[in-house]
Amino acid sequence: GTGMTSIRMGVFYQSLPMIAAQALGSYEAEGLEVDYQRVASSIQQFESLRDDRYDIVQTSPDNVANYRLNDANPVGERVPSVGFMGMDYGMNLTLVVRPEIEERSQLKGRTVSVDAPFSGFAYVLYKILRRAGLERDADYDVVPTGGVADRYTALLAGEFDGTLLSGGFETRAVSQGYRIVGSVYDIASPYLGVMACAKDEWLAADGDEVIRFIRASHAATRWCFDPSNRDEAIDMLAGLPNTDRALAAQLYEVQLREGVGLIRDLGIDGAGIRKVLELRREFDGFETEPDLDALAAPGGGLYDTRFLERALGDYR
């Protein structure tokens, strides 16, 4: 509408508060129009962020670290961005396999898929399999497929034997007979799944829009956590493609699960960031030895809590 500020957001999935913020007019109330654009992969996401095709991205802190700190990242140059709002704790980030596979060790000699081999959740997959005694390239093959929606579709099409799913796609797969055989919560806790991030220069230029975006997200998240809105929230989730009410109710339950789903106060937890960074370091994902204590702290360059404090004050 007139006088509305448009924000383009590159996303892997739409969480309940993201759906609610549109449906309830939370963004509109803050003078914003937010356009969710589904990303094909984290590589494409950061190319688009670099080229100013997205203003905000929903992404793992690991991607922020990779593109901020490593010159030889897949985009081929650094893309300095920073997390300004916590979104979820991995949203039930789990290893999902074909129905005939009963345990992780049976992935020996088989193929698993990731978004990109040296990104974000790939390290979670390698760690879950390392715990089962399987090492990357020696015991199993890794193929890149892109974002979670594409990995879900490819898993069901039989293109590989297992992959990490989240954001409701793991629940959909289980409803189709696929199995969960491991999760991020077994190997890294607390774990920060995704943050809302933007380029440093956009945040410097559009501080007011960021504040309004946080306020709208917070209003929608509070609405989602109010038990009296349960039925309406499930109706919203049932509006997603291929989602009956029983599945929508499962999606609702997972998203509101403490430490697994949504971050109620939108906070960014340094301990959760640290776990993400420890996984990247364990699999040699830094070009220079990182100071994890410094990086996991609020002023370390990966996230900035000042916008949250300005937007929400003490009432979080």
Short descriptors:
5-stranded mixed beta sheet, single chain, globular, alpha/beta
Strand percent estimate = 15-25%
Give the biggest beta sheet: 5 strands, mixed
Structural class by sheet pairing and helices: alpha/beta
DSSP E strands, number: 10
Number of helices: 15
Overview of this protein structure:
- 41% of the residues lie in helices and 17% in strands.
- By secondary structure, it is of the alpha/beta class.
- Helix 1 crosses helix 10 (207-225), helix 10 (207-225) crosses helix 15 (306-312) and helix 11 packs across helix 12.
- The longest helix is centred in the C-terminal third of the chain and has 19 residues, at 207-225.
- The model has no long low-confidence stretch (mean pLDDT 95).
In short:
The protein is an alpha/beta fold. It contains 15 helices and ten strands.
Set out the fold topology:
Layout: E1 5-11, H1 16-23, H2 26-29, E2 32-38, H3 42-50, E3 56-59, H4 61-69, E4 81-88, E5 94-97, E6 111-114, H5 122-131, E7 141-144, H6 148-156, E8 162-165, H7 169-175, E9 179-183, H8 184-187, E10 194-199, H9 200-205, H10 207-225, H11 230-238, H12 245-255, H13 270-282, H14 292-295, H15 306-312
Parallel strand pairs: 1-2, 1-3, 6-7, 6-8
Antiparallel strand pairs: 3-10, 4-10, 5-8, 5-9
Helix pairs in contact: 1-10, 10-15, 11-12
